[in-house]
Design a protein that fits this description.
By secondary structure, this protein is mostly helical. About 55% of the residues lie in helices and about 0% in strands.
């Protein structure tokens, strides 16, 4: 059950009840509020303060409450920047677990949204993975005639894509999975 904070009009009613000498539990029943909340205001008024001071005190306390933003150490930030430049996404960085990152994947996405150093638009993909879209991002346009491309360029794009870990491969790269299934005798042919 959530707590609804006392409104200014409720606070003015409470002050009127206090001025008239009405018991706190009766004021609580009338306002359909917890007796402890009303007692708290009554004690504040008994100490010689006003309702406006109570409300200002409440606002000051409320501004200090809540979760504080997570700040990552510089070495973790540099590691994340390096991996994003290689085409990794935040879930891949966390899931790969090469280096301990002191936040969850969800928090890391939040850091990307609010940070000046990490830009959410620099992420290689969002949502579902579209391999053709990623290839277009690497310079292989829809209108491009692939027969005119040099073998070196195609190898460069393939190498770049094969060294990005995939969630579907348990955060391993396609190259790592491929090499896992190659025997020592087969390696000689490469």
């Amino acid at each position: 059950m959530t707590y609804n904070h006392l409104t200014i009009s409720e606070l003015s009613f409470i002050q009127n009840f206090w001025n008239q000498g009405v018991k706190a539990y009766i004021a609580a029943k009338t306002l359909k509020r917890s007796a402890e909340a009303i007692y708290r205001v009554f004690r504040f008024l008994d100490a010689g303060y006003s309702i406006s001071e109570y409300y200002e005190n409440y606002r000051a306390n409320k501004s200090r409450s809540g979760r504080k933003p997570t700040v990552l150490p510089n070495d973790e930030l540099e590691y994340i920047k390096e991996k994003v430049s290689l085409g990794w996404t935040p879930d891949t960085i966390i899931g790969r677990n090469e280096k301990h990152i002191s936040c969850s994947m969800r928090t890391l996405y939040r850091i990307f949204k609010r940070s000046k150093d990490l830009d959410v638009t620099s992420l290689p993909m969002k949502g579902k993975r579209h391999p053709n879209g990623l290839l277009r991002k690497d310079g292989l346009g829809k209108d491009m005639d692939l027969s005119n491309l040099s073998t070196d360029y195609v190898q460069q794009v393939a190498s770049y894509r094969n060294n990005i870990p995939r969630k579907s491969l348990n955060y391993r790269t396609p190259l790592e999975v491929f090499i896992k299934y190659i025997t020592n005798e087969q390696i000689v042919f490469f």
